[in-house]
What does this fold into?
Amino acid sequence: QPSLFYENHDNPRMISKVNPDPKFRESLAKLLAVIQLTLRGTPFIYQGQELGMINQRFKSIEELRDVESLNLYQELCNSMSEEEAFVRVLAGTRDHARTPMQWSSEDYAGFTTGKPWILMDDDYKKNNVRAQLKDEDSVLKFYQRAIALRREHPVIYYGEVVFTNKKEKNLFTYYRKNQEETLFVEVNLSADRLKRRKPVEGRVLLSTYRNSSHEFLEPYEAIIWVTGT
It folds into this structure.
């Protein structure tokens, strides 16, 4: 179900929902970019998605602003401890996706000179627009390349979608086809290396890893191939 891979703007950030392990953060962010930008439909990139922003480390219920979350917390406190209730609310609060855009490492992430209505944790000190613009391997630079690729290949937004390997666990693959061109997209949805049953015949247009193997898909690797098949 491709819709599962799209970020819901009112829910916790998708990277944190799929796998919160920090070592997979950039790989997952780039993987989600490939899926969103190569399937049918109009892609909407929500603030911070192009940086690989993750769920915030809120420390107490007082840091949340979402009315639904606050009301749920009060309700849960009737049947469990305040600590347990906060953990439950934190897992689904919409405030994860409402913190200020992380523009820089300056105060309040460069979002404002005043105090914003909701605060963020210290993730912005390393993960921000200014830093990622200087890093050719960053999530932001990858989004730029993926968007440019989408514009260069009309087959992505006009072509037919053909899903393959439907019974393969953790392997999501599909063709984008028209009369002029055929692209093949393969995505490893797991934290494990996947061995290909057979090599892909084609040329790599974009990969979430700098060095892609013709034998394996790395953890959370996504590759766009141009092929004649």
User: Anything to note?
Assistant: The first strand starts at residue 160 and ends at 164. Confidence is low (pLDDT under 50) at residues 1-10. DSSP finds seven helices and seven strands in the chain.
